[in-house]
Amino acid sequence: MTDTLTERWEVICPQQRVEPERGVAALVGGAQVAIFRTYDGGLFAIDNRDPIAGANVMSRGIVGSRGDAPTVASPLHKQVYDLRTGECLDVPGVAVRTYPVRVRDGMVEVGAG
Amino acid sequence: MKHLVVVGNGMVGQRFVEALRSRDTSGEWRVTVLAEEGRAAYDRVRLSAFFDGVSAEELSLHTADDGVDLRLGEPVVRVDRERRVAVTGGGEYPYDALVFATGSYPFVPPVDGADLRGVFVYRTLDDLEAIRDHAKGRRTGAVIGGGLLGLEAANALRLLGLSTHVVEFAPRLMPVQVDEAGGAMLRRYVEELDVKVHTGTGTTAIRPRNDGDFGRQADSRGSVYGLVLSDGSWIQADVVVVAAGIRPRDDVARAAGLDVGERGGILVDTACRTSDERIWAIGECAAVEGRCYGLVAPGYAMAEVVADRLLGGQATFPGADMSTKLKLLGVDVASFGDAHGTAEGCLDVTFTDPATRVYAKLVLSDDAKTLLGGVLVGDASAYPTLRASVGGPLPGPPLALLAPESGGMGTGAGIAALPGSAQVCSCNAVTKDQIVDAIHEGCTDVPAIKACTRAGTSCGSCVPMLKQLLAISGVQMSKALCEHFDHSRQELFEIVRVRGIRTFSQLVTEHGRGRGCDICKPAVASILASLGNGYVLDGEQAALQDTNDHFLANIQRDGTYSVVPRIPGGEITPDKLIVIGEVARDFNLYTKITGGQRIDLFGARVEQLPQIWRRLVDAGFESGHAYGKALRTVKSCVGSTWCRYGVQDSVGLAVALELRYRGLRAPHKIKSAVSGCARECAEARSKDFGIIATDKGWNLYVGGNGGFRPRHADLFASDLSTEDLVRYVDRFLMFYIRTADRLQRTAAWIEAMEGGLDHLRAVIVDDSLGICAELDAAMARHVESYEDEWRATVEDPERMRRFTSFVNAPDTPDPSITFEVERGQPVPAMGERRPVVLGLPTMGVRQ
User: Fold this and answer.
1) Which of A47, B148, B153, B194 could tie B122 with a disulfide, CB 3.0–4.6 Å?
2) pLDDT tens digits along B436-459
3) What residues does the Rieske domain cover (chain A) (predicted)?
4) Which of B683, B679, B576 has the alpha carbon at shortest distance from B624?
């Protein structure tokens, strides 16, 4: 999940604060970001804002899989998003922004630009 | 616009009006219905259910329709055909078309004493109420007539606690429907219920009590005391019901000069048109080409014919299937086709088993290839298949079809052999072809077929055939929960239970694929919780919970949560009320009183939840589980403690039940209520399990719900002691938790159950599956291991850490959550996005 183009990384929290198959919300710059860990240790970061409902709730969705895609479902109306691309798998044309995310020295970091 | 007058609002009249109104899309007809009874149409076929506790409201068939002027208690006394007006006591109604749907009246044989007090007929709800009222405090009853209606009446008297006799003139019971051997088998069943049967006997006279009170009666009639029979014997009876047959109500038509049938009934052709082309007759009052039909299905068929004709159609009455299947006094009785073998050269195949007390007869054509009819007593499970096969080849070898345990009917082989034109649902005249078409057009389950074709919506006896048709049409009713499991919830429950699986990971690795989703994870979380796996947010279980369960609160549209403390039974002290008020004020929460007698506090941010709980827990509150697929509330009315009508302590029971079942995780939410008397102020019959006090104990109702498809709960058991009540509810809930589908409320669960309420009763009361001990033990474990999830959270710092706004800025609340004030309370700030209310004036509310 590293991104060599990202120059500025913001340290978020110790990596164990992101529990397997759950999300946390973080403030990165002015943006609300939802960070998830999948069962195999993969880390993903997307916008915390549910683009359909307009509320900042994505970090509280259920993490799972659809086919090969790691997913999170909006807790409000259950639309499912591909964590890798941010694409909504239930509503064509809807997507959330993704962010680079990595672990350095036991700390989760999100690319901030 | 033309004016249609319908005379009568019975079942057929009502069906006719519905059929016409639904098809009259261009508004060709204005409809006036003139009815004799003071009640709108009700289900007369199920009339006897009144004595099982089914209310008049539940029997009602009335549907509101602004396009129909329904005038109750205003019978037509005369029809003036010259002026084309129907005349009632209230006025005159001009018509362009008039439809008689006046039904029948009970035939009362001309014997002495038929007008005594305590002698009744059995036709209307008013009759039944009068019987019930008169039977109070009396001990003996007799029914004149041992046909279908007579046996229903006998059961009614039995249920009213009377020692009951049945007197039938013919040599056997139900002479019209069953043959001699079938009648004999039926008699054995009936006598076993302590009903005394007198066949081949007439009633010579009905005698009054001769105790001198004759002259004191206000109406100068004496009260009935008993019957003198044609063999000279005497039966004592305080209540007599005459059920000796029915006669068509053709008096008004006759007086108007319309032609009538030789044996009565308004004579109509196959279009159901009388000798006056503007006047029609349908149902029991009509004699189609001279023949009257005393069943509802032919009446419905006539209703459809006339509705079609009035809108320019050419429908004709197709003739009627006089087949019947009933449960009388708990005995299945069915007859179909040429039950008495009147066709020339026909052959009988009979089967009698005194051990299981089953009698069955098939009538075959002379070459034994075509089924003509038959009689079934004791076990009528083969009825749907056999009835639909009449006129066609046998759906299997005769003995295999008749012997009940051969399994010959259940396999679906029978229905596959039916011709497409065979009627599967005779109540609504739906053929096999129509049902198969509906399946091909996308109906994949029984409710869809019901909605689409009306099949199975009346007596329901064809529902097993609908299932078979679905099966043989290749509809795979997939039970897979989602893409990660091929199992149904019930199967997963058994896997988890039997194999002792404790984690989702183990379950999905060994029995599924992928990593789960928002469907299977909460379902498995609920199963694990039901099986007593402790705090729902420990370890891996936390990751399974839907956001509501994860945050122990209900998410709202802006991402805030609402908090509902438990208020058992809706009973709360002033001090606790004040605490709720203070908490709401201090955290700036919007408050609303819920339908379940709780107080809901809205607008709490994630990081505020533990602080709110801390305050509530310290004041003695606990989680109300409003967020869970779990027991929600047990509502109550104030009961005998305060109410002058109350007969039991409904609040006390509601509190006890709510505390017993609190926190119980289930396939869906569970609601309950307890009413302290039959006035039912707690609305218990709209609940998954509802309890209504009686002067002897408690009546338990199951399977009700409000919501999208409201449904009244059905009576499960009457006059229970508190101990029995709790035992039955324990088992009911545990059986539901074990076997229901995901998100299936109890109503749908019972409806989908093979055998329905009877099966449920057998499982819970008679332990027919031998699982009651397990169910009892499971509930005992639940009651013992309950802990308050809010308290468990606020007492554990590790658990508290989940309740933060931002993992890297825990002191910053979500800046996107803002409120504005509406009617003095905070609500989510919508700004420009607030929905516009159309057509409603804005009302100034004074603060």
Assistant:
1) B153
2) 888 888 788 787 888 788 887 766
3) 10-110
4) B576
Residue B338, min C-alpha distance to chain A (Å): 58
Among chain B residues, the shortest Cα distance to A30 is held by B815
Class of domain B419-477: mainly alpha
Cβ contact, residue pair B559, A61, below 8 Å: no
3-class secondary-structure state, position B264: coil
In a domain, A76, yes or no: yes
A76 in B contact zone (CB under 8 Å): yes
Q: In the A/B pair of chains, how many CB contacts fall below 8 A? A: 101
Question: Within its chain, how far is the Cα of B616 from the centroid?
Answer: 41
User: Which helix or strand (DSSP H or E) is residue B661 part of?
Assistant: helix B650-661
Cross-chain residue pair A55–B557, CB shorter than 8 Å: yes
User: Does the pLDDT value for residue B1 go beyond 90?
Assistant: no
User: Under CATH, which architecture does the B641-785 domain have?
Assistant: 2-Layer Sandwich (3.30)
* B2-105+247-310 has CATH 3.50.50.60 classification: yes
The answer, for A25 touching chain B at a CB cutoff of 8 Å, is yes
B117 secondary structure, DSSP code: B
Mind listing the pLDDT tens digit for each residue in B771-788? Answer: 999 999 999 999 998 999
| CB B37, CB B9: distance < 8 Å | yes
With CB atoms and an 8 Å threshold, state whether A60 touches B555. Answer: yes
The answer to whether B483 faces chain A, any CB pair under 8 Å, is yes
- E strand intervals along B356-464: 358-364, 371-377, 423-425, 430-431
CA distance, residue A4 to nearest chain B CA (Å): 24
CA atoms within 13 A on the CB side of B428: 22
Q: Which of B316, B397, B414 is nearest to B362 (CA)?
A: B397
A111/chain B closest Cα distance in angstroms:
14
Element (H, E) at B268: strand B266-268
Domain count, chain A: 1
Residue B841 pLDDT greater than 70, yes or no: no
- Domain(s) labelled CATH 3.50.50.60 in chain B stretch across 2-105+247-310, 108-244
Contact A73 B518 (CB under 8 A): yes
- In chain A, the residue whose alpha carbon lies closest to the alpha carbon of B541 is A21
B551: which chain A residues are within 8 Å (Cβ-Cβ)? Answer: 60
Segment B436-440 long-range contacts (CB within 8 Å, at least 24 positions apart): B436/B469, B436/B473, B439/B469, B439/B470, B439/B473, B439/B475, B440/B473
Q: Judge whether A72 lies within some domain.
A: yes
B526, B806, B811, B818: best mutation site toward chain A, by most A Cβ within 10 Å? B806
CATH number at residue A54: 2.102.10.10
Task: Give, in order, the Cα–Cα distances in Å from B790 to each of A71, B41, B641, B677, B757.
Answer: 29, 52, 32, 35, 37
Closest Cα in chain B, distance from residue A5 (Å): 24
Asked if the structure places residue A2 within a domain, the reply is: no
Is A56 inside any structural domain?
yes
Q: Which domain holds residue A81?
A: 9-106
ipTM above 0.90, yes or no: yes
Residue B780, class by beta-carbon neighbours within 10 Å (0-12 exposed, 13-18 middle, 19+ buried)? exposed
Whether B78 and B255 have beta carbons less than 8 Å apart is answered as yes
Domain B108-244 CATH superfamily = FAD/NAD(P)-binding domain (3.50.50.60)
Give the CATH fold of the B489-618 domain.
Answer: Alpha-Beta Plaits (3.30.70)
The two structure tokens encoding residue B420: 């497409």
Is A37 in the B-facing interface, judged by CB distances under 8 Å? Answer: no
